[in-house]
């Protein structure tokens, strides 16, 4: 699609990566989260590309987001941070959030002032999301959360968590509810280190031990959590595919560059 806005976002991303690319390598080596780069991504509008301007975003279309993912795809940790923030956190907030929830969370997330996390996977529930064990018990006008999540991107750096928990186990998938939980509610996290890749992208475990969440932080309606989780993952998969295209393009570019510089038998190999 030959759209000026898409060309502009690609050019902006490439200028950003001229400095961010070399810097990211240092964070990867230390398995450290690249906060300065993330802050810059927020300033450039990357973290809220298709978020409406009135909610703090860039107000571009979904294809601009895809273009950005392709450009960042060759720098996988940065692509991962973008995917989590937009596909897994902002997308469900925009689709299912109340006006109050949107005004409270979306602008700060879109500007990169805070990061979000998507809390679905558990030690005993991965692809079979319906078997999750985290519970949300009603207590007056609050829910009390008990359980744990694992392999959660942004676990140790997020301030806002989209947590999926069972409010009515007898209803199966229809008994799962999505809740917006804040770190200050009492969320405890620990990092997972030693990954083979995405070493500058935070991953960890999330522990919910008597965490109290007011009922006005239910995303959508009680019992709609599984539907929200699956719809959100559909968008997330598209972002992964776009990033993979960018990763392959960078691999090809690096290979071509090496082939032109590499000499054997007195001449370049290409």
TrEMBL record:
The keyword Metal-binding does not apply. SUPFAM superfamilies: Acyl-CoA dehydrogenase C-terminal domain-like, Acyl-CoA dehydrogenase NM domain-like. It comes from the Bacteria. One of its GO terms (molecular function) is acyl-CoA dehydrogenase activity. Residues 4-113 form the Acyl-CoA dehydrogenase/oxidase N-terminal domain. Transmembrane segments: none annotated. Keywords: FAD, Flavoprotein, Oxidoreductase. Residues 117-211 form the Acyl-CoA oxidase/dehydrogenase middle domain. Its cofactor is FAD. PROSITE patterns: ACYL_COA_DH_1. Belongs to the acyl-CoA dehydrogenase family. This is Acyl-CoA dehydrogenase. It comes from Thermus tengchongensis. The lineage of its organism: Bacteria, Thermotogati, Deinococcota, Deinococci, Thermales.
């Amino acid at each position: 699609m030959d759209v000026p806005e898409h060309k502009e976002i690609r050019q902006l991303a490439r200028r950003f990566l001229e400095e961010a690319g070399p810097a990211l390598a240092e964070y990867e080596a230390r398995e450290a989260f690249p906060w300065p780069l993330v802050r810059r991504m927020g300033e450039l509008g990357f973290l809220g590309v298709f978020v409406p301007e009135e909610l703090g975003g860039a107000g571009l279309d979904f294809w601009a987001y895809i273009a950005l993912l392709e450009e960042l795809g060759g720098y996988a940790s940065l692509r991962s941070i973008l995917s989590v923030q937009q596909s897994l956190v902002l997308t469900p907030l925009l689709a299912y959030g109340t006006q109050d929830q949107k005004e409270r969370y979306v602008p700060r997330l879109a500007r990169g002032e805070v990061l979000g996390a998507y809390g679905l996977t558990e030690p005993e529930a991965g692809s079979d999301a319906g078997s999750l064990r985290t519970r949300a018990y009603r207590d007056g006008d609050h829910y009390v959360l008990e359980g744990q999540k694992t392999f959660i991107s942004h676990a140790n750096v997020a301030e806002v968590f989209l947590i999926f928990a069972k409010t009515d186990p007898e209803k199966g998938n229809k008994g799962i509810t999505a809740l917006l939980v804040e770190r200050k509610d009492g969320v405890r996290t620990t990092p997972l280190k030693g990954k083979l890749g995405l070493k500058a992208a935070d991953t960890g475990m999330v522990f919910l031990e008597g965490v109290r969440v007011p009922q006005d932080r239910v995303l959508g309606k009680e019992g709609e959590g599984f539907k929200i989780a699956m719809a959100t993952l559909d968008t997330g998969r598209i972002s992964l595919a776009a990033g993979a295209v960018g990763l392959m393009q960078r691999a090809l570019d690096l290979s071509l560059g090496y082939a032109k510089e590499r000499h054997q038998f007195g001449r370049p190999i290409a």
